[in-house]
Amino acid sequence: MDGLVNVIVDGLKNSLSGEFIIFIISMIPILELRGSILIAPLLLHTSLVPTYIAAVLGNLLPIPFILLFIERIFEWMGKTKHLKKFPEWMKNKAMKHSEQIEKYGYLGLFLFVAIPLPGTGAWTGSLLAVMFGLKPKKSFLFIALGVMTAGLIMSLISFGALNNIVNLFR
Predict the structure, then answer these.
(1) Which long-range contacts does 39-42 make (Cβ < 8 Å, 24+ apart)?
(2) Are residues 114 and 80 in the same domain?
(3) pLDDT above 80 (res 114)
(4) The pTM is what?
């Protein structure tokens, strides 16, 4: 993952602003908002508020498409020779983290997205919302609140504690 971030940053830093790079990284599954905010002060030297806004907006952009179209996309992928195993793999991966959504519904969805742990985030939360048959509009609201909360947590880590530790070694 670290290599992917470096390739993206190195490839784009001379032609795009740091905030736009953060926006792009925030849209990428696995990296999402957590990855973009974590690298922002270290690799891109952006400030807190523009980083937060770019990361939240970038992370939210794909979510309506996932909520509305992922079932059709997975259905199509299941009919292709090379991609047919991917939808099942993704569903199984998502279900490993599904307990709190199954137990608490929309509140569980919010917590799943809001608490920045490996395997959680807006992409997986959206997939789980679809798999549990949660309403797309309401799911988007709770996912958006979760993304904003995760953004605050990651910003405090990246621009606070982590930044201070890195500055000790400069």
Answers:
(1) 39/5, 39/9, 40/158, 40/159, 41/158, 41/159, 41/162, 41/163, 41/166, 42/158, 42/162, 42/163, 42/166
(2) yes
(3) yes
(4) 0.87
